[in-house]
Amino acid sequence: MSGSQKSKSNILMAACVIVGTIAGITISSVDLGEANKFVWIACGIIFIGAMLFVAWVIFNAARNVQKAPIEEDRLAKNFTPVADKGVVYIFRDQFIGMLKALPINVSDQQVGWIKGKNFIRLELPAGEYTLGGNKTCKQPTIFQIANGEILYFEQEIVAGMVSSSYIYNKIDDSNQAQSKIKLCSLIKNKV
Hints:
Number of strands: 10
Strand content: 25-35%
CATH class of the largest domain: Mainly Beta
């Protein structure tokens, strides 16, 4: 994580703590009699805890996902094939779980993380691969890629009643995939 990202995360965390503390003190200082004072103090503490949790989630999401330089983003959106490798685009065009960063694994090797409105571009040697992630990725996707070929996969969050998971959908319509990717930001990958 760069120094400016750490600085922004620290400022955000400090702002959440300050706002939570002020709100907690304000709520607990309301004079509703001795019987209700304990309830208000407990509510203030819960509010502070919730603010800290939100700050932690945002901080962790930003930690794993780093945007690529603007020039790399522009070049990736040209969708140019590579003669001696296959190109795979993996994107998430959902607002559901927008801040939740999810890992991308190709054949059990972690290649990056993406959040909502992000994409990753991979150049892979021709062959068979498995596209997956962590334990919440319920259906790893097996795919074949040839040299000079471009494949598109959309990472989709599947919201459940108690928990959520994610899957990968292969997009065969390149125009549809490219129009969605153009609205997303390129993320640095680990390969």
